[in-house]
Structure formats: C-alpha cells, structure tokens
Amino acid sequence: TLLGIVCTDAKVDPKSMRYFLRHVTSTSFNCISIDGDTSTNDTVNFFANGAAAPANAAPLRYHGDKQSRSNASLEDQDDTRAFIKILSKFFKDLSQLVVRDGEGATKFVSIRVRSDLNYATAKRAAVSIARSALVKTALYGKDANWGRILCAIGYAPGIMDSQELPLRNLVPTNLENQRPIYPVKPRRTSVSFIPADGTEELKLLLRGEPEQVDEVRAKQILEAEDLEILVRLEDDGETAPSGDKKVHEAVFWTCDFSHEYVTINGDYRT
Amino acid sequence: ADRSIPATKQKYIPTSGTYPKGFLAGSAFAGVKATNTKYDDLALVVSEAPCPAAGVFTKNVFKAAPVQTSSKFLSERKGHGFRGVVVNSGCANAVTGRLGLEHAATMARTTDQCFGSAESDAVPSTLVMSTGVIGQRLPIDRITNAIPKLHQSLGSSHDHWMNAAQAICTTDTFPKLISRTFTLPSHPGTTYSIAGMTKGAGMIHPNMA
Asked: Please, what is the end-to-end C-alpha distance for chain A in angstroms?
C-alpha cells in the first residue's frame, strides 16, 4: 500500500486543491510500480493552510482551461505555474523514495518512452515494461535483455489489441487517407540503456534491428544501482524530416525483482 | 522485527527539515498488530487551524474502509475545514464490511474530539488512512485508547515529523520524509514550506483518482 501526506503553508483556493493534486499525482505517484499490485488502500492527502501567506496574497488557483486562464491576472498565472512546477518536483521526489525501498530491490529504474501518437501510448508501453516480471528479473540478474522489454511493449493493453479490434472504432486513423495508425511499429522502435553516470547511451535496438551490443559496456552499466531504459516508438532515423512532429514522453519508475522479494512475501503471515 | 535502517538507505534519511507553519505531527503506540509490542503504529498530522484539503484514492474496486470514509468526508465538506489525517499501520481495515466503515469513522471522530469537536458534528474534519493486512478488523478499542496519547505527542520539530513518518511504515526499511522551502513570483520575500511523508515497499502500483 502507498500512503502519502503532503502539507504546505501556502494559500490555495479550496476548489483548486483537488486539481493541483490530480495534476501532480498523474506524473508522480501514478507513475511508479514495485510489483504491479494496486492496493485497496492507496491514498495521498494534500493540505494547505495558508499560514505563511501575507494577508494580501491571492490564493493559488488552478487554471485548467483557457477560460480560467484568460480570467486570471498574469501575476496569478505566474504563481500557479511556479507552484505546479514546485509541487510536481516534490511529488516526484517523494514517490521515487518508495521505489528506492522496493522489497528486495537492488535497482532503481527509470523507463522513458517517447511516442509521436499520444501520451497514452507512451504510458501504456512504460507501464507494461515496469510490470514485466521477466524484465525485472533480467535487471536483477544484470542481463541486458532488451528482448523482454520489446516483448512487454508488444503485449501491452491498448497496443496489442489495437491490431485485432474493429479499426474504425478503436484505432486512430490518418484522416487524409483513412489508413489506421497503429500505436507501435517495430521498424520505428529503438531501445537504449542510458547510464546513470551521464556517459554515452548503449543502443540495443535501432529501428527494429538488433545492435551488436558491447557486453563489457552493458555489464558496466548494469552494475550501477540506477539505470534508465529509453524507448523510442517514433524513431524514423536522423535522415527522415522531423517536420512539426510532436513527441509525447511518459516516464515511469520501477525496480528489479530479486529472490528477496519472494522471501519477504512468501514469509509474510496474515 | 528489527527496525534498524540499512546502511545503503541512510542517505535518504533527512537529519533536519523546514516544516510548514501551523502544522503539527506526532506518533503513538496502540498495538494494532499483535506481533508489534513496541513500535509506534499511529500517526497524526494536523493543521492548528482547519484548512482546505484534497485526496486521491485507489481505483481498486475493493476500496478499503478508510478510503471510502475519507473520500466521503472530502466530498461532503467540499474540501473545506479539515484538521488533518490520522493513520494506523498494522491493519488495512480493508474488506471489513459495515463494521470496518464504522471503525474508520470512529477513528476520525475520536481524533476530532481531541480538538474540541462534538461527537454530533455532522462531518468529521479528520481524514483516515490505514495500512497493513487486508481482511482483518481493526482492534478499535486499542486505537481509540491511544488517540488521546497521539494528540499529546504532537509537535513541530523534525523529530515529530520523523516519528510520524516511521509510524506509518509497514515493510518499509526506512521512513520517507521530505521538506523544502519555496517562493512565488508575486511575493519573492515570502518563504513558504512544504513537507511530505510517504510509505510503501510492496503492493505498489498506484492508480489513484
């Protein structure tokens, strides 16, 4: 179970509290996984008592739509933007502490997925990788097993089933020629490991073609506690014109699966 | 169980903090789980003056009693006038039927009474959280007996916040607490604070709304 309690002495408009919380939770606590089990009890509560705010301070308001943004003063909009940035970073840092304490975990893994279709596709892929027992055991074993990563993307709900179901109902279409747009195409998919020390990325799969992997380098990268897996679902190669392609990025944090996880949960007594 | 913090996790434990004005935190021992005879398992985080609050909750169909109860309180109060949140570890109070819901409400009302609220007040101003084994009822008498002690334990020091962060832990190997200060463009001379605690090490894949 995940529980979180966050308090601030900034002054926040009561009606905006739930919108701020929902906004920052979507990219923090809702983007972590240790074992893929969603508890019956997960809760995060957020309190703001205004105790530090000057008497003439306006309450922070969430401007979620164009109308409310246009009604707000520039000063209010600046404050809201700054507050969201601070709150987002805070929630991300707090949520990542949970991943760092994953039962039996030895690794902290960031999964970054990029899609030029939409955020949902990127997130579905990231969640599937984070939930894969085989990906997580490979990470524990320090094995650069990118095949399991690809496999997990390929069976992700919303990605795998987009191939079978009536296309006109469920899959976005290219309006110009009515051809369906599949969320993931193998020949546009690339996977890399990004080392935590900022050194050069290790390319594992490039636009659907396996790379000749430097085993020594892979071992070096996987020895570290922190690792990033970068997945590009929109890789058309450097020679392809980028145009105005908008890239959506989802980041998810997880850990590895070790023998210790099984011991802890096998020994747990109700 | 031994609660010593592994050496590799020590770096995540803050030795000091800057906590938001007007908030207090504390912990106490209730003995929720039979095997725990010494570690605090109740925590309380409150605002000295009632304030706005919000919550996000699991989308799991089998929502625990404290989840149902707290989201109901937030809805009925429209996010206004909350005192804080009381938390127990050692038992999730989940899949516990009508009695579980009563127990969650009892935790809230008993905490409210420490701040002078009448039992007849329509909607409690304290939210509730629980964590632990699913499917077992709370030892509610132990909890209600310990809540006054919990109220007495409140303070604003770093140790108070750390103790509360520790009391909500279950299989965690370290308490998780962060605090920091910030400013806003409209009042650059005003320093605000934000503090947060979290727990969890297993059964973690939150999907909250």
From this structure: 15
Could you tell me the two tokens for A241? 């014109």
DSSP character at residue A162: G
Is this complex scored with an ipTM above 0.95?
yes
Question: What is the DSSP secondary structure assignment for residue B208, as one 8-state letter?
Answer: B
Distance CA B47, CA A108 (A): 34
Give the closest-approach CA distance of A99 to chain B in angstroms: 7
Q: Is A214 left (phi over 0), alpha (psi -120 to 50) or beta?
A: beta
Residue A74: closest C-alpha in chain B? B186
**Interface contact A41-B193, CB threshold 8 A:** no
Option in B51, B197, B203 nearest A1 (CB): B203
Q: Which residue has the tokens 């308001």?
A: A61
* A25 labelled catalytic: no
Contact of A10 with A48, CB cutoff 8 Å: yes
Inter-chain residue contact A41 with B129, CB threshold 8 Å: yes
**Contact list, A46 vs chain B (CB under 8 Å):** 53-55
Name the residue among A12, A25, A101 with its Cβ closest to that of B201: A101
Angstrom distances, CA of residue B177 to CA of A3, A69, A202, B57, B183: 12, 34, 34, 20, 21
Output the six-digit token pair for B179: 């605090």
Please give chain A's pLDDT, 270 residues, in tens.
999 999 999 999 999 999 999 999 999 999 999 999 999 999 999 999 999 999 999 999 998 777 776 777 887 899 999 999 999 999 999 999 999 999 999 999 999 999 999 999 999 999 999 999 999 999 999 998 999 999 999 999 988 877 654 544 445 555 445 555 577 999 999 999 999 988 999 999 999 999 999 989 999 999 999 999 999 999 988 655 556 678 999 999 999 999 999 999 998 777
**Which residue, among A97, A267, A98, A231, has the nearest Cα to A159 in the 3D structure?**
A231
